[in-house]
Amino acid sequence: MSYQAAVITVSDRASAGVYEDKSGPAVAAMLKEAGYEVVYTSIVPDEQEKISEELISCVDEKHCGLVITSGGTGLSPRDVTPEATRAVLEREIPAIPQAMIYYSLQITPRAMLSRAVAGTRRNSLILNLPGSEKAARENLSAVLGALDHALKMIAGGGH
After folding, report:
1. What pLDDT shows up at residue 12?
2. How far apart are CA 3 and CA 25, in angstroms?
3. How many other CB atoms are there within 10 angstroms of residue 114's CB atom?
4. CA–CA separation, 39 and 64 (whole Å)
5. Average pLDDT of every residue of the chain
6. b/e 53-82 (16+ beta carbons within 10 angstroms → b)
7. Of 9, 31, 81, 99, whose CB count within 10 A is highest?
């Protein structure tokens, strides 16, 4: 089954045009290669309300089965993507970010600083990735193989 996906880059500088977003297109390319139909991409600033609004729009209005954010999961004062995500989730899935951290710790000890969140809203899965292209690719590759099954389960596809 093919799922529709959205990729949201969270970055003050990319949203202002100060630099080119590389993580969002990299994530979209990985999803397309895995068989997802990427129907929407956007760049928003590191503002909790705007991030939450974008997540709600992707799920409630655009009906994307998978919504992935890139950026805003670190420790800087402007990193609020996890808080914005938790505000719109119905159920959290803690093992997805745990798997990403486990995988990433084999590459860098800095992985333990990620605050990524994953969970469901309606029949959609929302997942936060780090903002750097390299880290976003690595984290997505750690969990990409399980996302199709997760989406089937969320949609009521049974075991």
Report:
1. 97
2. 18
3. 22
4. 8
5. 97
6. ebbbbbbeeeebbbbbbbbbbbeeeebbbb
7. 81
* Alpha-carbon span 57 to 30, nearest angstrom: 22
- Whether the pLDDT of residue 124 is over 90: the answer is yes
pTM, entire model: 0.97
SS3 89: coil
Q: Give the C-alpha separation, 136 to 69, whole Å.
A: 9
Give the C-alpha distances (Å, rounded to integers) separating 64 from 47, 112, 132, 138: 22, 29, 23, 23
| DSSP 3-state of 111 | helix
Q: Is 148 exposed, middle or buried (0-12, 13-18, 19+ CB in 10 A)?
A: middle
Ranges assigned E (strand) in the chain: 4-10, 37-44, 66-70, 91-92, 118-121, 124-129
